[in-house]
């Protein structure tokens, strides 16, 4: 399959190599400021490096976009007039989900297919074997192509934008947990209790992450006043050990908001969906 790459950074270069190894014919790479690694790759494979999308794209059956998310829609608009009918455009950037949906609509209008592909790991560590999520009308075909490169791929929907939305939802959890882990372990280390802390948290290790998250939400409302006090005390303990909390003040605000909501209206309990509906209700007003 003739393949063009838009963006020759770490991601673009990684998948360019993986696709070449899988038997794809690379027709060109677009990068206005090619790094030395990209220039070397292009020389080895006899490829031209183009500063912008243009007529050089007209024979590509597959286009992989690996540009910055803020530029993704702009680059796609520039590329579309040069793409053949039926071409598959795969956007691997972390673009706004709304931009992904607009890009899919633009592709459809010109008889092309579109796939939103979200990278859910570190390409610089795992290379083309980094887990991927695919969405959009071209998701199934994109998944087949990328799986042939060794990537673990999951199709998560036929609507473009769903893959990147799931990636960003995952980031709320993983990046939030990362920041909390930094604060928690800094404090534990300063108290000489890091190893003991891991033992105390072993029940979370042994449990199901999904059930843990849902249980936290189900019990959050009723126990928010007491848990708020724990958050405040935890910050006091951090400061006593010389660690200034950065994340926990935001956690405190979350609990304070719930406590304020409880003072205005009761929560009768229920499952996770009921708790989420109660928590979301003020935002719908």
Short description:
Helices cover 56% and strands 13% of the residues. The protein is α/β, with parallel strands linked by helices and 285 residues long. The relative contact order is 0.08.
Which features would summarize this protein structure in a list?
8-stranded mixed beta sheet, alpha/beta, 285 residues, 13% strand, 8 strands, 56% helix
What does this structure look like?
The protein is of the alpha/beta class and 285 residues long. It has helices spanning 10-21, 36-45, 72-79, 97-109, 123-126, 139-147, 162-190, 194-200, 202-206, 209-240, 248-264, 272-284; strands spanning 2-6, 25-30, 49-50, 62-65, 88-91, 113-119, 132-135, 153-157. An eight-stranded mixed β-sheet has the order 3-2-1-4-5-6-7-8, with helices on both faces. Strand 7, helix 6 and strand 8 (153-157) form a beta-alpha-beta unit. Helix 10 crosses helix 12 (272-284). The protein is elongated, with a radius of gyration of 24 Å.
List the helices and strands and how they pair.
Elements: E1 2-6, H1 10-21, E2 25-30, H2 36-45, E3 49-50, E4 62-65, H3 72-79, E5 88-91, H4 97-109, E6 113-119, H5 123-126, E7 132-135, H6 139-147, E8 153-157, H7 162-190, H8 194-200, H9 202-206, H10 209-240, H11 248-264, H12 272-284
The proportion of strand residues reads 5-15%
| Main structural class | alpha/beta
- Write down the overall geometry: elongated
Q: Count helical runs.
A: 12
Order of helices and strands: EHEHEEHEHEHEHEHHHHHH
Uncertain runs are: none
For this entry, what is the oligomeric state of its chains? single chain
**Residue share in helices?**
55-70%
Distance between the termini: 52 Å
Taking strands numbered 1, 2, ... along the chain, how are they ordered across the largest sheet? 3-2-1-4-5-6-7-8
Radius of gyration: 24 Å
